[in-house]
Amino acid sequence: MDQYVVVGNPIAHSKSPAIHAEFAKQTDQSVYYGTLLGEEERFEAQVRDFFSEGGKGMNVTVPFKERAFAMCDVLSKRAELAGAVNTLMLGKNGEIYGDNTDGAGMVRDIVHVLNQPLKGKRILIIGAGGAVRGVLEPVFAQAPLSVTVANRTVSKAEALGKIFDCVASSFDALEGPFDVIINGSSASLSGQLPPLKDELVSEHTWCYDMMYGKEPTVFLKWAQGLGAKGADGLGMLVGQAAEAFFLWRHVRPEQAPVIAQLRSEM
Ligand code: ATR
């Protein structure tokens, strides 16, 4: 049975093994997917050991995505642009190949599972950290009308503007409404809402939070209170896993039933 693993710290509560087990069942693939507690002092050695012992593929999560990026022999274009790697596999000559499926997973969730097109849309992205950097290339691949990145620390949004074709802004200078707003700031994690003006949203605005939870996030509550529709990032988690599964197994699993199952277990 081919062996796969997700490495991170902490890792015990990762949903990835359950997601990949479901994908394997659906597509009749013989795979085992486990967890590995990443160690600060020897993460790179853990990765090399896993592959030298015959492991087929590895997902990487917090806090190791940048270290995984740094140790790859070959990178996909999207991983290079993201500056981070969440999926590892071996190339033909034993080289470590790194990819980043987070952005493609988010875009697939938005466009194909939730049926919200991004093409031709005026998009606002909140935050300018690693999570946002990871999704910009796949968002641009959808041919939006414009992408504005707003961040508390404006210089970080400006730095992204040098790599991608996005407009950098402070929260204050934003002028809405936008067609689509994506929250990629980690503010939701601590139950906080970035200082967003109500006029950024109309009842036609569609909002997506990269975070997810049992209850709607503060960002989604704010948007829904203004009449907007939207979704949280549970489907992004499943989407990035589906993209990794596709890279490894060359078959594309169904995401919607897995999202529904995870939601029912929350
Ligand atoms: P991640 O990997 O989740 O993107 P990160 O790189 O630390 O984590 O980035 C966190 C992002 O959330 C940043 O854009 C951060 O804004 P700053 O660059 O100004 O720090 C944003 N963020 C976190 N807490 C926030 C808050 N309370 N209000 C607004 N933005 C917040």
Describe this structure in words.
Shikimate binds at residues 14-16, 61, 86, 102, 212, 240. Residues 233-263 form the SDH C-terminal domain. NADP(+) binds at residues 127-131, 151-156, 210, 233. By secondary structure, the chain is α/β, with parallel strands linked by helices. It folds into two domains: 2-100 and 237-264, Leucine Dehydrogenase, chain A, domain 1 (Rossmann fold, 3-Layer(aba) Sandwich); 103-232, Rossmann fold (3-Layer(aba) Sandwich). The chain has helices at 16-27, 43-52, 65-71, 77-82, 102-113, 130-140, 154-163, 218-225, 234-249, 256-265; strands at 2-8, 31-37, 57-60, 74-75, 87-90, 96-99, 122-126, 146-150, 167-169, 180-183, 206-209, 229-231. The protein has a six-stranded mixed beta sheet with strand order 2-1-3-5-6-4, sandwiched between helices. A six-stranded parallel beta sheet has the order 9-8-7-10-11-12, with helices on both faces. The two termini are 30 Å apart. It binds 2'-monophosphoadenosine-5'-diphosphate. 2'-monophosphoadenosine-5'-diphosphate (ATR) binds next to helix 6.
